[in-house]
Amino acid sequence: MTTRKRFGQHFLHDPGVLRRIVEAIAPQRGDAVVEIGPGEGALTRPLLERLERLTAIEIDRDLAARLSREFPGDRLAVVVADVLDYDFAAFPAGIRIVGNLPYNISTPILFHLARQAGRVRDMHFMLQKEVVDRMVAKPSTPDYGRLSVTLQVRFAMQKLFDVAPGAFRPPPKVVSAFVRLVPLPDAAIPENFADVVRRAFSARRKTLRNALGLAPADFAALGIDPALRPENLSPGDYLRIAERVSRPGPGTS
Prior knowledge:
Layout: E1 11-12, H1 15-25, E2 33-36, H2 44-48, E3 54-58, H3 61-70, E4 76-80, E5 95-100, H4 106-114, E6 120-128, H5 129-135, H6 146-152, E7 155-163, E8 168-169, E9 176-183, H7 193-201, H8 208-212, H9 216-222, H10 235-246
Parallel strand pairs: 2-3, 2-5, 3-4, 5-6
Antiparallel strand pairs: 1-8, 6-9, 7-9
């Protein structure tokens, strides 16, 4: 099958890697599983060996049609859609999401899926290793940034293993990695959280005083040094900042 560059397609074909992925996911017969970007079905097939039913979201109409011809509709439901536009509220709570995400839009997909944390049991993804390193990075390290904070406040994440380019067709120019995301319990996120984090890291070379524009009294109440830089704060610090900023000020109603 010819790959389509605009979709960022790199089809996984290595049997050993596929086996490790399925073992890591450990699907059980009655699990509600959604696969993003099934492509040629390399992961779809071993998943269906263990599942009663699987839903697959595929943007490429030709690949979607091919999968629909191979599997009966009561086993595989193929949805032709762009995952960035897809509303996961259509699925019951406790879904498991898996996939070999297109590397060219993996970060927007992760931001989109982060908003589904309350509906998800876990997520397992193949991604560019550089992206996974950013996802799991610790504060005050070079890889730590907006993606790290946005995901770590919602998920416990574990990088499981690296995957060499030769496991794909065509081989990507980067090393890949497989990662697990498990939602944190009671992760109540203020509505302004994403905006606070975005503002901070859009000016990551500046101090927090200049990046966030909070009053000295706010920093004092939070116990945060305004001379620090955005990458020095933990996800919990950003939660506290968002909660403080969202409170009505004196004299407001």
